[in-house]
Automatic annotation (TrEMBL):
Residues 184-293, 309-457 form the Phosphoacetylglucosamine mutase AMG1 domain. This is Phosphoacetylglucosamine mutase. The lineage of its organism: Eukaryota, Viridiplantae, Streptophyta, Embryophyta, Tracheophyta. It comes from Arabidopsis thaliana x Arabidopsis arenosa. It catalyses: N-acetyl-alpha-D-glucosamine 1-phosphate = N-acetyl-D-glucosamine 6-phosphate. Interconverts GlcNAc-6-P and GlcNAc-1-P. GO terms for biological process: carbohydrate metabolic process; UDP-N-acetylglucosamine biosynthetic process. InterPro entries: A-D-PHexomutase_a/b/a-I, A-D-PHexomutase_C, AMG1_II, AMG1_III, PAGM. Pathway: Nucleotide-sugar biosynthesis; UDP-N-acetyl-alpha-D-glucosamine biosynthesis; N-acetyl-alpha-D-glucosamine 1-phosphate from alpha-D-glucosamine 6-phosphate (route I): step 2/2. Belongs to the phosphohexose mutase family. It comes from the Eukaryota. Binds 1 Mg(2+) ion per subunit. Its EC number is 5.4.2.3.
Length: 554
């Protein structure tokens, strides 16, 4: 690192003093917090993104400014690696270090040490890096984006490109496409969704002259970017009747009483929905549209919803994929493709039982898509979902190219109309429709909708796949959530000492009881999860575990 480069970093970092008494951590999904306190963090992540790009041969890196489902006054920043996936976890400690560096001098010396260790060449006349910047609809997004631009620009020779207001998955998709040399604009993203959706619609088996009856889907856009983007997409979709509410244009506040996180955790209907919607198929996106849940309102007399969460979406996807794999002759001949599903400890126990009954390989990962994604990538087709609705389907490169050549082979043999050809074509279309970079509520909605049409199922019929065990989640505020340390599966607390024994004694009191605690990686709370055979039991187990957390940590 030469003198001019050092001077450039020192000068720009003077503009972004770090606020006192905040301890920042990259956490489950990037840095998050009160937007007013984040400028220095975003500026520094701007620098990190350039280093990441340079480390990987000047590949394009993405930065997304969002705090997802958190309140509107919060914001955050996360890095999309050139693959479109999350920032490599190996770089998280460096991210934490520079975010917390207390002075420009400390910042520069940390960067200096790091670039030497990683053998990254920066400074004048070195290769240039390109960083794409996206943000959600939060009002603080614009000024934070400027901070990111200054961070990127302070590494000589690098460029920041503002690609506007986007959903998180759009940014990841675009970065992935760009680095694969594919068309990578927002329009390309929309076109890809609508063309692969159409392809799947055209492959729906129609018996005789049956005409598919398409019922309306009501979408809760969380007053965020997702509602706006799905509105843009709607024009190019046929065979889908969408009514979008909570777009944020009608005065509603982002994530306030709306959105996937609210609906999934509270199991009540979001604002803008009411008794007139009883029985209708409804979907809810989160604030940056990387999560999706479905629901319906079973009765006029209450605000409770019947929730179809990420686990249920996973089951629907798994069933459909399995059905297609079963139609492949090669599969029957022993060339078994490896289909696997990945869940976390928050998955409803009934969903895991159901998936296993389908004969699926179910594996568990820690909370946070970066962990699930990694495990899903080990299969030919890996489906992962968090219960909160964040997930996707991954196709391995080798399996996908096998599918594509199979498709061609069957066409060449004149078997283009065969069941096998249709199954292969459906799988190829799913791989295009579903966002391979990261969970995406928009592509998720389209896939759910086309599968329901394929099966001829209503939302109620889909919900009958299995019955969720009653569950309850509680957040407990404690002075220091990092005092809770769990095992790698997150189902047992190793610290504070003694708490797990106490939790176990509570669990024993409830039939089908299961409970665990872990520190949140996105909020300053300890999360409690409990499930049991009745709602009263799940609530009571969750409450007693929350009491334990308070007494051990309060
Ligand atoms: C229980 C729960 O829903 N946890 C969420 C939440 O993480 P926490 O570390 O639990 O705060 O936000 C993450 C990012 O959106 C998401 O991946 C994860 O599933
Ligand atoms: Mg989100």
């Amino acid at each position: 690192m030469d003198e001019i480069q050092i001077a450039s970093l020192l000068k720009s970092s003077e503009l972004f003093p770090i606020p006192q008494s905040v301890k920042l951590s990259y956490g489950t999904a990037g840095f998050r917090g009160d937007a007013k306190l984040l400028e220095s963090t975003v500026y520094r992540v701007g620098i990190l993104s350039v280093l990441r790009s340079l480390k990987l041969g000047s590949a394009t890196v993405g930065l997304m400014i969002t705090a997802s489902h958190n309140k509107v006054s919060d914001n955050g920043i996360k890095v999309s690696d050139p693959s479109g996936g999350m920032l490599s976890q190996e770089w998280e400690p460096f991210a934490d270090q520079i975010a917390n560096a207390s002075s420009p001098q400390e910042l520069v010396s940390l960067i200096r040490e790091f670039v030497e260790k990683e053998e990254i060449m920066i400074g004048e006349k070195k290769k240039s890096a390109e960083v794409w910047l996206g943000r959600d609809t939060r009002p603080s997004g614009e000024s934070l984006l400027r901070a990111a631009e200054i961070g990127v620009g302070s590494v000589l020779g690098s460029v920041a490109i503002d690609i506007g207001v986007l959903t998180t998955p759009q940014l990841h998709w675009m970065v992935r496409a760009k680095n694969k040399g594919l068309k990578a604009t927002e329009n390309d993203y929309f076109e890809n969704l609508s063309s692969s959706f159409r392809c799947l619609i055209d492959l729906i088996p129609v018996s005789g002259n049956d005409k598919l009856e398409i019922s309306k889907l009501l979408v809760d856009g969380a007053n965020g970017v997702g509602g706006q983007k799905i509105e843009e997409l709607r024009g190019s979709l046929s065979n889908l009747d969408l009514e979008i509410r909570n777009t944020g244009r009608d005065g509603g506040v982002l994530n306030e009483g709306v959105g996937a996180d609210f609906v999934q955790k509270e199991k009540v209907l979001p604002l803008g929905f009411g008794s007139q919607d009883v029985g209708m198929r409804c979907a809810s996106l989160d604030g940056d549209a990387d999560r999706l849940v479905y629901f319906y309102i079973p009765s006029e007399s209450s605000d409770k919803v019947e929730l179809l969460d990420g686990d249920k979406i996973l089951s629907l996807f798994a069933l459909f994929i399995k059905e297609q794999l079963n139609a492949l002759d090669d599969d029957k001949e022993g060339k078994q493709s490896r289909l696997g599903v990945v869940q976390t400890a928050y998955a409803n126990g009934a969903s895991t039982d159901h998936l296993r009954q389908l004969g699926l390989d179910v594996v568990f990962a820690k909370t946070g898509v970066k962990h699930l994604h990694e495990k899903a990538a080990e299969f030919d087709i890996g489906i992962y979902f968090e219960a909160n609705g964040h997930g996707t389907i991954l196709f391995s490169e080798s399996f996908l190219s096998w599918l594509v050549s199979k498709q061609k082979e069957l066409t060449d043999k004149g078997q283009g109309g065969s069941e096998e050809h249709k199954a292969v074509s459906r799988l190829v279309a799913v791989s295009n429709l579903i966002n391979q970079a990261v969970g995406d509520a928009l592509s998720g909605v389209l896939l759910v909708e086309v599968i329901l049409q394929h099966m001829g199922w209503s939302v109620q019929k889909w919900n009958e796949l299995y019955k969720d065990l009653p569950s309850r989640q509680i957040k407990v505020e404690v002075p220091d959530r990092t005092a809770v340390v769990t095992t790698s599966e997150e189902t047992e607390a190793l610290r504070p000492l003694g708490i797990q024994g106490a939790i176990n004694s509570e669990i024993k009191k409830y039939p089908r009881g299961r409970a665990f605690i872990r520190p949140s990686g996105t909020e300053d709370v300890v999360r409690v999860y409990a499930e049991a055979s009745t709602q009263e039991a799940a609530d009571s187990l969750a409450n007693s575990v929350a009491q334990l957390v308070k007494s051990f940590l309060g």
